[in-house]
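User: I'm curious whether this sequence folds into something compact or stays loose and floppy. Could you predict its structure so I can see for myself?
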Amino acid sequence: MRRLLLLDADVVIDLHSLNLFNKIRKSYHLHVTRKVLEEAKYYKIGSDRIPIEISQKVTIVENVDVDSLRVVQAEAREAELCVDQGEATSIAYLLQSEGDVTICLCDKAAIKLIAYMELEDRSISLQNALQNAGHHSKLYPRHLESTFKESVKDGKALRVQKLI
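Assistant: Here's the prediction. I'll summarize afterward.
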């Protein structure tokens, strides 16, 4: 059974620039929030901007609970982390969802926030997501499991510091 994978805009853009979007699509049910869809408009090859059109290839999350979004924004302020609206709505959707949703992010601040909010067990690095899909080639450093784990560790440390 294919797992549900919630993607952030950076991941969508990078998957397109690496020509891996369709590869991961074969292994996961892909979801994005409306805000992520708006943010992931194009990717670059050299100086060319290539439009991204995924609305027919993913499930678009239209309704993100306002209370969940407020929780994410409050936690980000408390942790002194800056995340964009796509990341915030994605994390809010993760909070409100009760199903088997796994979020895939590559922004360090967003990963730290996930760990700060103790949601890291519902997240995955892009490297691991791609390996689960059968892809094993080189990726950008921000996609690596080691980078992901370091950001999780930093987010957990932030949580401990705030509790002291």
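Summary: The beta strands are 3-7, 28-33, 42-45, 48-51, 59-61, 101-104, 123-124. The two ends are 43 Å apart (CA to CA).
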